[in-house]
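Entry 12.
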Amino acid sequence: MSDKKILIVEDDRNLLDTLVYNVKKEGYDVVTSINGEEAVESARKENPDLIILDIMLPKLNGLEVCRILRKEMTVPILMLTARNGEVDKIIGLEVGADDYMTKPFSMRELIARIRAMLRRAGITVAQPDSVEKTIKIGTLEVDTERHRITVSGKELELSPKEYDLLVFLAVNKGFVFTREQLLEKVWGYDFAGDTRTIDVHIRWLRQKIESNPSKPETLITVRGAGYKLAE
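Predicted 3D structure (tokens):
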């Protein structure tokens, strides 16, 4: 039995029962909520290790729930979105979700995501012992010791995954990583995940660190290869 607790927030009773059955079968402790207000209360009370959060919820939608909880805790949040909810996916990542899955999805993939997210939870991306504690790239300064990132002296507010991604690229500045490599190194996925997660996080990071996000000079796309931070 695992000692990890997972909060599942879903108002579709049939899907909720299926999720609970499959997650419990893996040995996790499960608590549930069927609306947004209840989800916030449950998260505060139960202090879960991971939250599976549907976007379409009564009383308070999943995006609002995510926004509220992200201000209070760093618990990994996996957002569930509708088949055509591309805008919801992007907004969900913007307000602090770590990843998303589009309905319908396989329970096997869900369990793989849960394992990967729990494995990475609370762990800062591995860094070589020889790396400097403060990494400067133009106006960007990454202070890995104080868990602080600034641009032109102004501290940035980043989601946990934005922080992990930026630190990983900063520690390995100048090196190019494919989307698949970033999913493995930062998200901990050892399977073919949805690489659009990477693109969305890159987009939001550019909004925060680039003077002109449409013409990035720090977080660079290497056509046909992937992404890197300039040296």
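Annotation: The first strand starts at residue 5 and ends at 9. Residues 122-130 have pLDDT under 50 and may be disordered.
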